[in-house]
Amino acid sequence: MSTPSTSASDPAGASTPTPAFSPLYQQIKGLILQGLEAGEWRPGELIPSEMELAARFKVSQGTVRKAIDELASENLVMRRQGKGTFVATHAAQHVQYRFLKLHPDAGNQQGEGRAERHILECRRLRAPADIARALALRSGDTVVHVRRVLLFAGTPTILEDIWLPGHAFKGLTAEQMSSYQGPTYAMFELDYGVRMVRADEKIRAVLAQAEQAEVLRVSQTMPLLSVERTAFTYNDVPMELRRGLYRTDTHHYRNALS
Fold first, then answer.
1. How many domains in the chain?
2. What is the widest separation between alpha-carbon atoms in the chain?
3. Lower CB density within 10 Å: C or N end of the chain?
4. Are 239 and 206 part of one and the same domain?
5. What is the tens place of the pLDDT at every residue in 32-83?
6. How far apart (Å, rounded) are the C-alpha atoms in residues 205 and 225?
7. DSSP sequence for 170-188
8. Strand (E) positions, 44-153?
9. 74 and 120 assigned to the same domain
10. Residue 239's CATH number
11. For residue 218, what are the domain limits?
């Protein structure tokens, strides 16, 4: 199944690149990813067994297992003992905030619960140049802009601006964003068929501007955490740009590294 990458010989005598081959399990992983991207198996659904996939791709079961191991390590699929392998989903009960790394400080967890969401704005507009670049859109393409505040235990803690490609989120409304009870990324999966599989973040410390300080009920001298997150679907296609300001007087940003 390997596909070498070669080029014609250089008549001037330049060296010919060495053919590049990807390991067989990586090729099988790519084929499974193609099925995920095409919607052959939806989030939360059971994918075929290793034996079935081995027969389908005409490779050994061990090769398929190694491919699925990598997909599982990247949180694209989930193994369940005695049940099989399922497409990972943000709608799973144990998944509440997959990419949100803000946690209450010790002694401040009583009544934390699920965030209360207040939508301040939800509108469609032509993408500003920086937003278009971040979402790999053409200048002037339509985006959906959502501004919201997240409250924990009644305290406004996060102010977010979210930009989404307009073509993928047609019909998204403020009412839909505020009324959905589960994680927002689960709504994106279920209602729009868009699954965020990974995210990149940039973090810096900033001071709040007057309007932001008013929404978060803090003074303009309080340092905030600025978190810019780009979330991607399959094949590294950017599907969301999110810029958040986090209060850290009662919460902290925590990430597990390995």
1. 2
2. 74
3. C
4. yes
5. 988 888 888 888 889 999 999 999 999 999 999 999 999 988 888 889 888 8
6. 5
7. TT--HHHHHH--S-HHHHH
8. 77-80, 84-87, 102-104, 116-126, 142-152
9. no
10. 3.40.1410.10
11. 102-253
